[in-house]
Amino acid sequence: MATYNREHYIVEALNTIRKQTYTNWECLIIDDGCTDNTENKIASVLKIDSRFKFLKRPHTHKKGLPGCRNYGLEMAKGDYIIFFDDDDMVHPLNLEICLSALAKNSKASFCNYKKQSFTGTFDYEIDLGLDFNYKETDSTLLEDVVTQVVPFASCTVLWKRNCFEENRFNEDLMYAEEWECYQRILSERIMGIIIDKVLYFNRKHEASNTGQFWSNAPARVNSKKSAIELVTFNLVEKVLLTPRLFKYLVNLAIGFRDLKLVKNVLKISKANRRSRLFITFKYWLFPVWVFYKNKIKKT
């Protein structure tokens, strides 16, 4: 768990981890340079539960979620890795159900589950049943994750540790870092299990990274643009850039109204002249398309 100035939320988040029915875990809390009262707020939790460890991100890792998570990966001792945020809530059966699902298939390298968003006070009715539906992933997973048909949020996947032996979060990214990292892992053709059950509750507020992205904070927006280029490069390098993925990534770039980004994606993907002309034409027509789309919705 990376943390930065979340004194109002973090204790509540840690208490939901303490309530896990599966008890053999460690939780590394990585301080990203907090300037508020976070350390004092969590002191009582650290005192009564030795499974929590509070660590300062060293200067060898860049400030931000990726740097904190990479340091956590270095320090973790467990066979499985899961990333929780310091302002969210964890289902009490999260670890028990995920590990139970993985036990059903020794070849599975990860377990993905659903999340439920909330705002304000957490009052979601938690399903404490141990029953769940699950399916094994197939060859379509990479495309579905890149195109976000199958949600792979940073906190909704429990991974086998070896998935990160050759993979780390890109510390230059301040948003979409998990999208970029997870597609690299999945591009290695590993298989996993997807659970049809809510096991995580993410708090929506303006100060979150996602909230800042949708508020057009430059650091978050530029990070997503960089992630698009990195994802395109990885898929090309591994000969995995299908027409569907090419279309999705190009359309993402067009949506940012950044011609340089569009040209970079076309260059990285080695698009032919006909495709480059068509995409460039589409870029300039995009505002017209949005105008008429909104007009149709109003009517």
Short description:
The chain is an alpha/beta fold and 299 residues long. The protein contains twelve helices and nine strands. The strands form two sheets. Strands 4, 5, 6, 7, 8 and 9 form a six-stranded mixed sheet that branches.
Give an overview of the whole structure.
The protein has 299 residues and is of the alpha/beta class. Helices cover 44% and strands 15% of the residues. The chain is built from 12 helices and 9 strands. Strands 4, 5, 6, 7, 8 and 9 form a 6-stranded mixed sheet that branches. It has a 3-stranded parallel sheet with strand order 1-2-3, covered by helices on one side. Helix 1 links the parallel strand 1 (2-3) and strand 2 (27-31). Helix 10 (243-255) packs antiparallel against helix 11 and helix 11 crosses helix 12. The longest helix has 26 residues, at 273-298. It is globular and about 65 Å long.
Radius of gyration: 20 Å
Kindly name the structural category. Answer: alpha/beta
Query: Structurally, how many domains make up the residues?
Result: 2
Task: Tell me which CATH architecture of the largest domain applies here.
Answer: Alpha-Beta Complex
Low-confidence stretches: none
What is the terminal-to-terminal distance?
A: 47 Å
Principal-axis shape: globular
Number of strands: 9
- Give the full name of the CATH homologous superfamily of the largest domain: Spore Coat Polysaccharide Biosynthesis Protein SpsA, Chain A
**Biggest sheet descriptor:** 6 strands, mixed
Figure out the total of helices.
12
Strand content: 5-15%
The CATH topology of the largest domain corresponds to Spore Coat Polysaccharide Biosynthesis Protein SpsA, Chain A
Helix residue percentage = 40-55%
CATH first level of the largest domain: which class? Alpha Beta
Mean pLDDT: 93
